[in-house]
Write a structure and sequence with these properties.
By secondary structure, the protein is of the alpha/beta class. It has an eight-stranded mixed β-sheet, sandwiched between helices. Strands 9-16-13-10-12-11 form a six-stranded parallel β-sheet, sandwiched between helices. The N and C termini lie far apart (88 Å).
Length: 716
């Protein structure tokens, strides 16, 4: 049995009048005492218990002012910001004073800040600059059950720090749907605090039988049912992705009886400001919030009294065998279903309508597969190498990643030039570790910097890392002034430098609203790219600030830098007009745009799962045109000499093929009739036997003739 702490009175700071008592409140004094005495703690509390805001505040109020900062790790930017704002409000302060937050490209803190909410990746960046995490007294890992790669890495690094140079560091892991025992064991058998109470009950309903209607129609029917039954609050609808949200939004807007409702989306492609508006109460109108799992944890969406759950999520995985990302539609776990239903009971008794049967629910897995078991680990391994933790094989993970994924990450980092044969950082790898992006994009920036195009490389990396800056899914490319092919009839993506041109046109116009409209650019996405570009450029060395190159020279440098970042994504069109390309890694893919070149680097590649719309296949949505001769330098270690003899059935002869090959791609080839040799004779004989020519036209038995000829050669 795990140690269980008894309920205790509230901490010394009284609740302010506007606050409601929350189920976690009676346990706060015990939580503070446990962390003071044991240095580690696991907190279990159901959705709505108040752990995200009340536990960090109790630690702030219960620790000496000079002890150091308290960091709270959140899985996403939106809950990070909202939690900080909520705690600051409860303390009667503005966010950024005693309580602040730090997310990618935004730091709302001050010298007075003692409680800092941060996204998980920010902890890793801090450790890269300060391996001891100086000035931080305690770290709280909120919503640990989500098990992002960054979550697992943060826990392992913090525990390692606690066992070595920072024994006084306090660690607290919190979750609503967590199997606590393995985590307690990892933290040295620490105490476990469990809050059993839910703020308000939630009535959960399942479908009596499976439905064949499209999902957006099921959602519309469920919303209309709630309205007919007199629901007076807001409704939160969980859908698997942005595409499903758009379809549901269109259907709901046209449905009878919904004209007075605000139907708002909530997903990761929206800006932080748009996400914040979606979760804020609207006193003028009731809301139907159509959300992905971004609202599943941490965020209290005030005013929500009903949840409609499709029971699905679009899950990103990574195949270590192909090196390609896969996006699959999957059923959520029972734990996730509990999280979603809990969103309805935050302010009053609520309802949850699940668009699947009870039998379906009970047959699902208990918990989601941790991201570390299915994700690309290249960034994780680069971080570990930069922190010099020693051999990865000896690193103490909370849950060890699959060996195949680790091997694939090690191979990729080797191809990018980041690791040497002993898995230690190379000079290029040390430069790459400066940039808070995936190692591919860090390599792109470093290569662009070395070629005198560092600023342009930062822009390319920002365009790849952020969402598409164009408003329409099939928006045409703007005027480039360089004569590159327009792709306005070939799909939603194309050549990366066309996006560079579009952004720079907007930049020249100082991102005025009318200029963005004329270029058909999304203002929020363009702003996000500009922010990412500035952040990357701030980490450039002196070479990144050299005089700009001529247009043609910069084009070449940026394409070569992109090749250096994606050396395993080289592809070749089957013909000049064919939208199908052959990948060096094997297999084929369909171009969604036209980079206007026979040879290219596939940047944005997605391998669709069989159950995805359109079925299984590989799609290239963004590419960079390259030149064949560049491969001889960029991919020299992977290019093989070819010298083989093959039977040509059409010409009925044995041929010799010589040349160079990069994986499945032929870079150069010469075909000539095969010279006389034993191998040529063997292939001829095999071809004859395969066609049933066991006897020559004169009746001679072919095998016996070959035997006699072989004997004759021994006498010659």
């Amino acid at each position: 049995m795990s140690p269980q702490l008894d309920a205790c009175p509230l901490p010394r700071v009284p609740l302010s009048p506007p606050e409601l008592a929350l189920p976690i409140d009676p346990l706060l004094r015990g939580i503070v005492a446990a962390l003071r005495d044991e240095r580690a703690l696991v907190v279990e509390a159901p959705p709505g218990a108040g752990k995200t805001t009340r536990v960090p505040r109790a630690l702030l109020d219960g620790m000496p002012a000079d002890a150091g900062e308290i960091w709270v790790l959140e899985p996403r930017r939106l809950p990070t910001r909202l939690a900080a704002e909520r705690v600051a409000l409860e303390r009667g302060e503005r966010v950024g004073e005693t309580v602040g937050y730090t997310v990618r490209f935004e730091d709302v803190t001050s010298p007075r800040t003692r409680l800092r909410f941060v996204t998980e990746g920010m902890l890793t960046r801090r450790l890269l600059g300060d391996g001891r995490l100086s000035g931080v007294a305690a770290v709280v890992l909120d919503e640990f059950h989500e098990r992002h790669v960054a979550t697992d890495l943060a826990l392992a690094l913090l525990r390692r720090l606690q066992l070595t140079t920072r024994p006084e560091l306090r660690l607290c892991a919190m979750s609503a749907t967590l199997e606590a025992e393995p985590l307690r064991a990892f933290l040295g058998g620490c105490a476990n605090v469990r809050s059993e109470g839910r703020l308000h009950p939630v009535d959960i309903e399942h479908l009596p039988a499976e439905e064949d209607r499209p999902l957006h129609e099921q959602v519309t029917g469920a919303v209309r049912r709630l309205l007919r039954e007199g629901l007076t609050g807001d409704v939160l609808v969980f859908l698997p992705g942005a595409a499903e949200i758009r379809r549901a939004q269109e259907t709901l807007a046209a449905a009878p009886g919904t004209s007075e409702l605000a139907i708002v989306p909530l997903h990761g492609e929206l800006s932080l400001e748009e996400q914040t508006r979606a979760v804020r109460p609207d006193p003028a109108r009731r809301k139907i919030i159509l959300s992905t799992n971004v609202a599943e944890s941490s965020v209290t969406v005030e005013g929500v009294v009903a949840v409609i759950d499709a029971g699905l999520a679009r899950v990103a995985t990574h195949s270590p065998w192909t090196g390609l990302p896969t996006l699959a539609l999957q059923k959520i776990s029972r734990a996730s279903a509990t999280q979603r239903a809990g969103r309805a009971g935050r302010t009053r008794p609520g309802r949850a309508l699940r668009l699947y049967t009870r039998l379906d629910h009970d047959a699902r897995r208990a918990h989601d597969v941790p991201e570390i078991a299915r994700a690309d680990l290249a960034e994780t391994l680069l971080t570990l190498a930069a922190l010099d933790v020693g051999p990865v094989a000896d690193f103490a993970w909370f849950e060890r990643p699959p060996a195949a994924a680790l091997d694939a990450a090690r191979t990729l980092l080797g191809r990018l030039g980041a690791l040497d044969g002993n898995d230690r950082l190379t000079p290029v790898g040390r430069r790459m570790a400066r940039f808070p992006v995936h190692p591919r994009l860090a390599r792109l920036v470093c290569e662009g910097e070395s070629r005198g195009a560092g600023a342009g490389a930062c822009l390319v990396a920002a365009l790849i890392s952020e969402r598409d800056i164009r408003r329409g899914a099939r928006a045409s490319f703007g005027p480039s002034g360089r004569g590159r092919r327009s792709s306005n009839d070939l799909g939603e993506y194309g050549e990366i430098l066309d996006l560079v041109d579009l952004f720079r046109e907007a930049d020249k116009a100082r991102f005025r609203a009318d200029a963005l409209r004329s270029l058909d650019l999304d203002a929020r996405a363009t702003e996000a790219v500009a922010r990412a570009r500035r952040h990357l450029a701030s980490s450039l060395g002196s070479r990144g600030r050299e005089a700009p190159l001529e247009v043609a020279a910069e084009d070449t440098a940026l394409r070569q830098a992109t090749l250096a970042a994606f050396p395993d994504r080289v592809a070749r069109r089957r013909s000049p007009t064919d939208r199908t390309v052959v990948l060096a890694s094997g297999g084929a893919a369909e171009l969604q745009g036209d980079p206007g070149s026979e040879w290219l680097v596939a940047i944005d590649v997605e391998e669709r799962a069989a159950r995805s719309p359109g079925g299984r296949g590989v799609s290239v949505r963004l590419a960079a045109a390259i030149e064949l001769e560049w491969l001889l330098d960029a991919c020299a270690a992977d290019i093989e000499d070819v010298d083989v003899l093959e039977w040509n059935a059409d010409k009925e002869r044995v041929e010799r093929r010589t040349g160079l090959r990069l994986g499945a791609l032929c870079l150069d080839e010469t075909v000539t009739p095969a010279p006389a040799s034993d191998e040529t004779s063997r292939l001829l004989a095999e071809a004859a036997l395969a066609r049933g020519l066991e006897r020559l036209p004169g009746g001679e038995d072919v095998p016996r003739l070959l035997a006699r000829l072989a004997f004759a050669r021994t006498l010659a």
